Amino acid sequence: MKYLAALISIISLAGFSWAACPIPSPSGPSAGQESTLENLRQTGFNYSGEGHYRNAAACYEEALHTAQALGISNITVATDLQNLALLSEEMGKYTDARNYYLRELDLLNHLGDASSVAAGDAYLEFGGLMQIQGSFSEAENHYKKAVGLLTQHAGAENLRTAKAQGRLGRLYMEWGKFAEASTLLRKARATAEKSLAEDNPKLISFFDSEAYFLCQTGKYREAEKKWMTALKLAEHAYGENEIPYGGLMLHLGQMYSLLGNYPAAETMLQRSLAAKEKTTGSDPVDRAIIMSSLAETYTKHRKLAEAEPLVLQSAEAANARCSESPISCAFIRSNLGRYYMTTGQWGTAALEFERALMLREDTFGENHLVADSLISLSGALRKLNRKKEAKTYETRATQILSSQRNPAYDTSHTIDVRTFQANNR
Questions:
Q1: pLDDT confidence tier of residue 114, bands split at 50, 70 and 90
Q2: Is 405 in contact with 178 (CB distance < 8 Å)?
Q3: Of 207, 210, 144, which is closest to residue 181 (Cα–Cα)?
């Protein structure tokens, strides 16, 4: 009881107030506190699925408060903490999310479950937070712990283990470790397909990750097939509620834009943005990523009047969050730089490309996305007649790409690398 009281005290300082959970059908006066507790959790779950993240957080907070009053300290309370961490991520409250994950792991240790399936799940989600923030080494450590714990306690062929392998594979892909990524993603998807019916929506994230990898390695037809399979599953499972698969539509739209199929790209990205705008309390950077992607498509399609407000709004939303979301911020700044290149503002474009380059260097070191920024910057510098500097950046980019074990870079295709923001929460 003393431990849980300390736990709740720390939670109350994590950035949320004890707002009342707006329960549509409150329990009657005769209902017990345990019944009320389950009602709070179910209501929080429902609000989360509908994209009402503030309401969902209020319900899970109240559930924790009720559990404290009842003297309950168990695995379900740890799950409440994880749900609050995930909701904090959705709302862009990364410091709060980190605190919730740490408290969850502390509680599991206190309960004697430091080595368990629950701990594996906790490390898996904690790794996702670290990946979003660009702390790849820390994310890798958490993912490896998750894979180890889940393999040991759930089984090598378990769906949870496959999910952890898929997350680690996706991290390696963003990190430029393509050989490791390929092995893990294929293994994860194969396990998932053996474990689930072919129309199970849990397959969506596995197809999404593998499609992402195929796109990054230049296999666009195969990527489109995987994404369309995932999209059909999502549309069948969720119907008109597109919130759960807005990230999937974002990725598909980004690929169509890369391939020059602008009408298809615009359709997907507009749907993704519409889904995001139905949520309440979501991270403004997530919305900014979609706006920036749509703006880039409009820019390439020479719809500059439509592109301008989106590209400027997305940059404004990202500016205050670059330290917390460096990967996303670099992506948005790169698209802003491309807009300025298209409109002939080469000096301003160079500044944006330089900012994106710094963010990517700090996050990745020598990476394919760093090479992308170097190439973009060299293009702006050539327009400014700074050809010697441009040549230096081009040479460095070539050296980086030649060292990457990515089949897409072994072709004679023009280099046009794009980042895809993974929504693997």
A1: confident
A2: yes
A3: 210
Neighbour tally for 80: CB within 10 Å:
25
Cα separation, 387 vs 381, in Å, equals 7
Q: Under the phi-then-psi rule, with left for phi > 0, alpha for psi from -120 to 50, and beta for the rest, what region is 365? A: left
Write down the residue that tokens 């430091």 correspond to.
114
Q: Are 126 and 164 in contact (CB under 8 A)?
A: no
Q: How far apart are CA 219 and CA 407, in angstroms?
A: 9
Q: How far apart are CA 141 and CA 129, in angstroms?
A: 12
CA distance 324 to 177: 23
Q: What is the pTM of this model?
A: 0.85
Tens digit of each residue's pLDDT (9 = 90 or more) over 45-102:
999 999 999 999 999 999 999 998 889 999 999 999 999 999 999 999 999 999 999 9
CA atoms of 110 and 118, how far apart (whole Å): 13
Q: What's the CA gap between 68 and 359, in Å, rounded?
A: 43
User: Does 31 or 232 have the greater pLDDT score?
Assistant: 232
Residues 6+ apart with CB under 8 A from 269: 249, 250, 253, 254, 257, 290, 293, 294, 297
Give a three-class secondary structure readout of the chain.
Answer: CHHHHHHHHHHHCCCCCCCCCCCCCCCCCCCCHHHHHHHHHHHHHHHHHCCEHHHHHHHHHHHHHHHHHHCCCCHHHHHHHHHHHHHHHHCCCHHHHHHHHHHHHHHHHHCCCCCCHHHHHHHHHHHHHHHHCCCHHHHHHHHHHHHHHHHHHCCCCCHHHHHHHHHHHHHHHHHCCHHHHHHHHHHHHHHHHHHCCCCCHHHHHHHHHHHHHHHHCCCHHHHHHHHHHHHHHHHHHHCCCCHHHHHHHHHHHHHHHHHCCHHHHHHHHHHHHHHHHCCECCCHHHHHHHHHHHHHHHHHCCCHHHHHHHHHHHHHHHHCCCCCCHHHHHHHHHHHHHHHHHCCCHHHHHHHHHHHHHHHHHHHCCCHHHHHHHHHHHHHHHHCCCHHHHHHHHHHHHHHHHHCCCHHHHCCCCCCCCCCCCCCC
User: Residues 327, 130: contact at Cβ < 8 Å?
Assistant: no
Give the span between the Cα atoms of 253 and 246, in whole angstroms.
11
Of 30-44, 148-162, 242-256, 327-341, the poorest mean pLDDT is in 30-44
Of the candidates 264, 313, 252, the residue with the CA atom closest to the CA atom of residue 288: 313
